[in-house]
From TrEMBL:
Compartments reported by the entry: Plastid, Chloroplast
Lineage per the UniProt record: Eukaryota, Viridiplantae, Chlorophyta, core chlorophytes, Trebouxiophyceae
Any GO BP: fatty acid biosynthetic process
Family of the protein in this entry: Belongs to the fatty acid desaturase type 2 family.
Naturally occurring in which organism (per UniProt): Coccomyxa viridis
Molecular-function GO term, any one: metal ion binding
UniProt-recorded name of the protein: Acyl-[acyl-carrier-protein] desaturase
Residues the entry annotates as binding Fe cation 2: E188, E241, E274, H277
């Protein structure tokens, strides 16, 4: 069985990225800070409120300031940094785009599924169902939550195309950044596709409730707090891809352990893709650190302080709250945590890994603002580690509440009361 005893309070599932909730800060304050840090040598644009009022960043007319819509700072990259991004075309073509695999040799979802054109298709489905019968409901809740997150891919492609200097201006732009975004999306598209079909064939999942959740999630979008800024955006995606690798890797191990080796192979194949994507995004940020160490340090410090939010944090199945008086995403995160699929410790481990990889603690030659970011982010890691350890201890004494999940036909799954 999956380890329910190792429960952390506020970690999040595979494609989710919330650190301990006690650490969260007001979004607007964080957004102002990065704006001040990065918008230093560009003309100060106007801000547009949702009601159409034009204001500056301080809310006063006529004084300039960052562009803000509904509390979200926009376009925080400065002109020099934008030039650096444009200078990376050759690097991207040579170092990053080749990390994607050739479509001709790439695995496809059908490689892992019963062959619907085969005379023994129904026997293959029966075999699949025999295997999936052994999987407990808490496993399904995590797998389905991960699948729903993958299925909201239109939102993630849109997010990449919000980033200044890298967006695909036409939808078919023949630029390295445009090719990367489209082909990355095309690789990712296989993940939700495969997981969705496997869940459907198992008969263990209420697909209508799942489909409703996917439609709601795509309709809601996400706010990764990346400010159209590719520095922030690629730090976010570096973290996110590693988080998904960890989560899918764990659902693979758990499926194998629980008797469904085929599902283990599926989740492992997806985790393998996430590992390549992580490598690619990290390489982009490697280059940013080479070209602009101070600017990238400030961006890294800012993203870590604001925290990496989960792309699926707005998920809604239209009934979880009514049935349980609790938030669906929080409960999904809690089950992912309880099953050891993605935990608060994982969040802190990823942060630590990236800090080691980018030599955050040892980087020299930074300007004073970047040095402050360097000190702050190291202190933040220590604080996150301490809080996560403490919350882990506290959670062991918290009550477990039977909670209905529509995704598994309203069967009750234990959720730690946070
Ligand atoms: Fe994925
Ligand atoms: Fe991914």
């Amino acid at each position: 069985m999956l380890g329910r005893s190792t429960v952390l309070p506020c970690s999040s599932p595979s494609t989710s990225f919330a650190a301990p909730s006690t650490l969260r800060q007001p979004r607007r304050a964080a957004a102002k800070s990065i704006s001040a840090a990065l918008v230093t040598d560009t003309p100060r644009p106007k801000a547009i409120e949702s009601n159409g009022t034009t204001r500056n960043g301080n809310g006063k007319l006529g004084q300039g300031g960052p562009t803000i819509i509904n509390g979200q700072v926009l376009h925080s990259i400065n002109a020099h940094q934008l030039d650096l991004i444009h200078s990376m075309d050759g690097y991207l073509d040579k170092t990053v785009v080749p990390i994607l695999k050739d479509v001709k040799t790439m695995w496809q979802p059908t490689d892992f599924l019963p062959d619907s054109s085969s005379p023994d298709f129904l026997d293959q489905v029966a075999e699949l169902r025999k295997r999936t019968d052994q999987l407990p409901d808490d496993y399904w809740v995590v797998l389905v939550g991960d699948m729903i997150t993958e299925e909201a891919l239109p939102t993630y492609m849109a997010m990449l195309n919000t980033l200044d200097g890298v967006r695909d201006e036409t939808g078919a732009a023949d630029t390295p950044w445009g090719r990367w975004t489209r082909q990355w999306t095309a690789e990712e598209n296989r993940h939700g596709d495969l997981m969705n079909k496997y869940c459907y064939l198992s008969g263990r999942v209420n697909m209508r409730a799942v489909e409703r959740t996917i439609q709601n999630l795509i309709g809601s979008g996400m706010d990764p707090k990346t400010e159209n800024n590719p520095y922030l955006g690629f730090i976010y995606t570096s973290f996110q891809e590693r988080a998904t690798k960890v989560s899918h890797g764990n659902t693979a191990a758990h499926a194998t352990e629980l008797g469904d080796k085929q599902l283990g192979k599926i989740c492992a194949a997806i985790a393998g893709d996430e590992a390549r994507h992580e490598k690619a995004y990290i390489k982009i940020v490697d280059r940013l650190f080479e070209l602009d160490p101070s600017g990238t340090m400030i961006a890294f410090g800012d993203m870590m302080r604001k925290q990496i939010v989960m792309p699926a944090h707005l998920m809604n199945d239209n009934e979880h709250m009514q049935n349980n008086s609790r938030n669906l995403f929080k409960d999904f995160s809690s089950v992912a945590q309880a099953t050891g699929t993605y935990t608060g410790q994982d969040y802190v481990n990823i942060m630590e890994f990236l800090m080691k990889h980018w030599n955050i603690g040892g980087m020299l030659g930074l300007n004073s603002e970047a040095q402050k970011a360097q000190d702050d982010v190291q202190a933040l890691l220590t604080k996150f580690r301490r809080l996560t350890d403490r919350q882990e201890r506290i959670m062991k004494s918290k009550a477990v509440v039977p909670t209905k999940f529509s995704w598994v036909f309203n069967k009750e799954v234990p959720v730690i009361q946070v």
